[in-house]
Design goal:
By secondary structure, the chain is mostly helical. The N and C termini lie far apart (33 Å).
Amino acid sequence: AGRFEDARRDLDFALSLAQERDDRLFLRVEFALLELELAQGHGEAALERLARLARQAPPAHPFLGLKARALASVERYRDAVEAALEARSTTGDWWREDDQARLDDWMAAQER
């Protein structure tokens, strides 16, 4: 847990610098923080970050995939499937086999 907290602290610092200087770097740090929140099981925090990010008009990749993963992490499978389907249709070559496998799992979960 200590390594995650160290990483979060470093990323928060980088985020404050990036916000002042470079929108692309800002987004990369935000996406890294999202990955960290999801890895730690903080789906609600990830959804809050995604809501703030949505106002910045982020690129479809990786935003939509992260959104789908965050929604699935709080068992909102129908919304996760919608976000994943949108990601699949808009991200083109960025869509990978593991993305499809997650989508298949979420589709099965929403039917239960």
